[in-house]
Design a protein that fits this description.
- The structure is a single chain.
- By secondary structure, the chain is of the alpha+beta class.
- The protein has three domains: about 190 residues, 2-Layer Sandwich (Cytochrome Bc1 Complex, Chain A, domain 1); about 190 residues, Cytochrome Bc1 Complex, Chain A, domain 1; about 230 residues, Clam (outer membrane lipoprotein receptor (LolB), chain A).
- About 30% of the residues lie in helices and about 30% in strands.
- The protein contains 19 helices and 25 strands.
- The strands form three sheets. It has a 13-stranded antiparallel beta sheet with strand order 18-17-16-15-14-13-25-24-23-22-21-20-19, sandwiched between helices. Strands 1-2-6-3-5-4 form a six-stranded mixed beta sheet, with helices on both faces. It has a six-stranded mixed beta sheet with strand order 9-10-8-11-7-12, sandwiched between helices.
- Helix 11 packs antiparallel against helix 12.
- The N and C termini lie far apart (about 100 Å).
Length: about 700
């Protein structure tokens, strides 16, 4: 009976409580409690190496991350050295050549990547001894082979050639120099000249001076105990000898005074890359970090609800994306805001970005904005704790930046306390709407519209490396499009007059060229065969030599009246309409001979340009009723065509540039002077074709013109 009475009493109390609950009112959020985080201490070994161990026994895997925390310093006229060094660290060891080294890593199914600061590697626990043996060789006895050095150096130079035409790369170079200064490590720009200055000895000296254990951290994460980790380090890394620690340097950086507009020209671009930026003195672990991150998230930190995205994409439809960032850094951080915009709205986009930056300073954010970002950051932080790599990162930051032990465990509590007043105060402290560097890379036609944003009413023009742009020199009197083309055609055909040219053309009806290139990414040879015949017959086939045979990846043919293309993955396309009419125009033996007689082609002499310390006549080519441009560069010294540059846009308006270099001109039979090397640089893909065979025939007859390959 007592039990029944007690049960009825409890039920009655519960019903009364429910009756008093007002479900129309949302419950008050509870304060964030401190998080119990087990941030491991660093274990220091005799050689100075500090080791951080994060145990996670859910999977039989172990990862090893080495971070060499040497002070960053300027590389001067050898800018790019650290990048080359990072790649060379993965080029084999004195005990295990690169091919054998890579095979051993693949055999155990491990992951290994090297950088200038160390490496990241992981494998199943049972393979840990093998992996550690290889990692020990990497840090104690890297080989630095000469052939790999030359390969990596050549690859780097090809990438630089491509970046000259990449708007984002140009913008980054300009921004870094004006924010930090060219003498600051972050303001240095890597060029072909600085890469050419680097020797293999420089790489070896970098290793000796920078890559030492006494300012390095080894982070071990996974199915491992602290005692096992100590055993690993003693066995595999005790032979890594400590060195002299580098001295930290301090740098003077320029300060923006007023708003300054910097313009990088990119001919033919239909979009402008905008970067509104200034330096920020915000060190890792600073008490303002969380507040600044909230402020940046509201301004343009990545979500569609951010002000920049909402305004410039959702409301104005100026762009696909507009973002902002605010970085902290031991030396000096930076603020950045911008994106890619259509030419015709570039000035309007700058106006709106500047307005949003000023609004952050002059007005408080809304309760809704603050709540949305806080909730997002809380959720993101909570989810990140599911990964043991997060704890490892927390531990590394704690020891590197001397953070309080409870820095991360109290993160959510500090996040929760931030107010709208705090956000506005941070904006006033870290944003400088009156002192900004406004960097724009795009078509020169829009430059004059940007003068209004410069405090002094003038624009500073920059080249692709962030230096003062040098205007094209005017060509000497008497040098015209006609004279440049005639000189090249005569050189190519090895004649000195129109009469000699006509006589030679009567004897040449077809040219067949075979060239090959090695595609490193595929580990295979590529063959390009081209056929050209009087007056406008063409054919080509590009094939790849695979272990199973020769595979054609691209074909083209035209017999003077009809033809088409084939591309692997896209199928066949027939020449029709404007494409067909264009193919019918004369182009043999060199298309330049018919430039001036082509009613649909506009050719201009822009002046004399300089590349790699040599001068070239620069011609601009534009098909009528098309926004796409191409440029040809003819050597002032020899008259030969050395470069061809084409700029095209995709359906979204993004610009892509392909640069082709023609070199190693050589005389062949029948009296033609042709380039025997053609280097195609299309973004990240670089192909170097070397001519191995040239056939010259009297009659333009070949089955390939009809598509019979």
């Amino acid at each position: 009976m007592k039990k029944l009475i007690l049960s009825l009493s409890v039920l009655f109390v519960g019903l009364c409580s429910m009756a008093q609950l007002d479900r129309s009112v949302a419950p008050e959020p509870q304060p964030n409690p401190p998080i119990e985080l087990n941030i491991p201490d660093a274990i220091e070994f005799d050689n100075g190496l500090q080791v951080i161990v994060v145990e996670n026994h859910k999977l039989p895997q172990v990862s090893f991350q080495l971070f060499c925390d040497y002070p960053i310093s300027p590389e001067g006229d050898k800018s790019g050295l650290s990048g080359l060094f990072g790649e060379m660290m993965g080029a084999g060891t004195t005990n295990t050549p690169k091919d054998a080294f890579d095979s051993k890593v693949d055999y155990i199914g491990a992951t290994l990547a090297t950088t200038s600061r160390g490496f990241y590697a992981s494998s199943l626990k049972k393979h840990t001894p093998i992996l550690l043996g290889l990692l020990s060789e990497v840090v104690t006895s890297p080989a630095f082979p000469e052939d790999e050095f030359e390969r990596i150096k050549k690859q780097t130079l090809s990438g630089l050639a491509s970046s000259k035409n990449d708007a984002s790369s140009i913008s980054a170079n300009i921004s870094n120099i004006i924010n930090y200064g060219s003498d600051h490590p972050y303001g240095e720009v890597t060029t072909e000249e600085t890469i050419e200055n680097i020797t293999l000895d420089d790489v070896k000296n970098f290793y000796k001076e920078k890559f030492v254990p006494n300012h390095s951290y080894l982070i071990i994460v996974g199915d491992v105990t602290v005692e096992e980790a100590k055993g690993y380090v003693n066995e595999y890394f005790s032979g890594w000898k400590s060195g002299v620690s580098s001295t930290k340097m301090t740098y003077n950086t320029p300060t923006a005074s007023g708003s300054n507009v910097y313009f990088g020209a990119r001919p033919g671009a239909v979009q402008s890359v905008i970067n509104i930026t200034h330096k920020v003195d915000l060190k890792p672990g600073h008490e303002d970090i969380i507040t600044v991150r909230i402020m940046n998230q509201i301004l343009g930190g990545g979500s569609f609800s951010a002000r920049l995205m909402s305004n410039l994409r959702e409301d104005k439809a100026y762009t696909y994306g507009c973002y902002s960032s605010m970085s902290s850094d031991p030396l000096m951080g930076e603020f950045s805001a911008g994106g890619s915009f259509r030419n015709e709205v570039t000035d309007s986009a700058v106006t709106q970005i500047l307005m949003e930056i000023s609004r952050m300073v002059n007005e408080q954010v809304t309760d809704e904005e603050l709540s949305l970002v806080k909730n997002s950051m809380t959720g993101s932080f909570a989810r990140s704790l599911e990964s043991p790599q997060t704890i490892a990162s927390f531990a590394l930051n704690t020891v590197r930046y001397n953070l309080p032990r409870d820095y991360y465990s109290t993160y959510l509590q500090r996040l929760e306390k931030i107010t709208k007043e705090d956000i506005q105060n941070a904006a006033k402290k870290y944003l400088s709407p009156e002192n900004l560097n406004i960097v724009i890379v795009g078509n020169s036609e829009i430059a004059e519209k940007l003068v209004q944003f410069d405090s002094d009413g003038s624009i500073s023009y920059k080249d692709h490396y962030g230096q003062e742009a040098v205007s094209l020199k005017q060509a000497p009197e008497g040098i015209t499009v006609e004279s440049i083309i005639q000189t090249y055609v005569y050189k190519y055909m090895m004649v000195s007059s129109e009469e000699e040219l006509e006589a030679k053309l009567a004897k040449i009806g077809m040219i067949e060229v075979t060239a090959t290139a090695f595609v490193e990414e595929m580990g295979a040879n590529m063959t390009l065969m081209t056929y050209s015949g009087a007056m406008n017959k063409t054919a080509s086939v590009m094939s790849v030599n695979t272990p199973t045979g020769v595979m054609a990846v691209q074909r083209e043919h035209f017999n003077g009246e009809s033809g088409g293309t084939f591309m692997m993955g896209a199928g066949k396309t027939k020449y029709e309409g404007d494409d067909l009419e264009a193919k019918k125009r004369p182009n043999f033996p060199v298309s330049q001979r018919y430039y001036l007689s082509n009613p649909n082609l506009e050719v201009k002499l822009l002046g004399i340009d300089e590349m790699n310390d040599k001068e070239y006549y620069k011609l601009q080519l534009k098909e009528k009723d098309s926004d796409e441009l191409s440029f040809e560069y003819y050597s002032v010294e020899t008259g030969l065509l050395c470069y061809s540059e084409s700029i095209v846009q995709d359906e979204e308006g993004n610009s892509f540039t392909t640069l082709i270099e023609f070199s190693e001109y050589t005389e062949i039979k029948k009296g033609l002077y042709m380039p025997h090397k053609m280097t195609i640089n299309a973004g990240e893909q670089v192909l170097e074709f070397n001519t191995i065979k040239v056939k010259v025939k009297k009659k333009p007859v070949a089955p390939q013109f009809d598509g019979d390959f």
